[in-house]
């Protein structure tokens, strides 16, 4: 954590596609904040001296990206989630595999966010 709004994170994916896609790691700098009621977080991959050195994991690179969460006026229990992503997965990976793997990975991420939201709501955090 660099400040309340800025952080450098280290993220590791798991293998996928029945072993066709090996794990990747990312070193990602991000800034978060609100534009009115809309949560916005943007960032990109960075070189960071304290980041773990990749061993058998392929270091992928995120270009500039952004996530926005907009409350929906018609239902307080829903929101619109916009995710702009530019990622170079490095290593050898056919585009046809990426075309299948990326939507699955993004759907899994959204499922995790939903579960976290349910847990936080049960805990009275919002």
How would you characterize this protein structure?
This protein has 126 residues and is of the alpha+beta class. Strand 2 and strand 3 form a beta hairpin. The longest helix is centred in the last third of the chain and has 28 residues.
Key terms:
126 residues; alpha+beta; six-stranded mixed sheet; two-stranded antiparallel ribbon
Brief sketch in words of this structure:
This protein has 126 residues and is of the alpha+beta class. 22% of the residues lie in helices and 37% in strands. It starts with 5 loop residues before the first strand and ends with a helix.
Radius of gyration: 16 Å
Characterize the overall form.
globular
Q: Decide which structural class fits the backbone.
A: alpha+beta
Oligomerization state of this entry? single chain
Beta-strand content bin: 35-45%
Distance between the termini: 23 Å
Average residue pLDDT: 89
The number of helical elements comes to 1
Number of distinct beta strands: 8
User: How would you characterize the largest beta sheet?
Assistant: 6 strands, mixed
Helix coverage percent of residues? 10-25%
Query: What pattern of helices and strands is seen along the backbone?
Result: EEEEEEEEH
Instruction: List low-pLDDT spans.
Output: none
Helices and strands, with pairings:
Elements: E1 6-12, E2 24-35, E3 38-45, E4 58-59, E5 61-62, E6 65-71, E7 79-84, E8 87-88, H1 95-122
């Amino acid at each position: 954590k660099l400040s309340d709004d800025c952080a450098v994170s280290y993220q590791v994916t798991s293998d996928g596609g029945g072993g066709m896609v090996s794990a990747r790691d990312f070193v990602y700098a991000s800034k978060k904040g609100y534009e009115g009621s809309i949560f916005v977080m943007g960032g990109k991959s960075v070189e960071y001296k304290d980041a773990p050195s990749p061993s058998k994991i392929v270091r992928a690179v995120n270009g500039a990206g952004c996530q926005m969460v907009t409350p929906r006026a018609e239902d307080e229990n829903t929101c619109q989630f916009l995710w702009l992503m530019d990622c170079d997965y490095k290593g050898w990976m056919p585009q046809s595999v990426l075309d299948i793997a990326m939507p699955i990975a993004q759907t899994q991420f959204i499922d995790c966010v939903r579960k976290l939201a349910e847990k936080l709501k049960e805990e009275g955090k919002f």
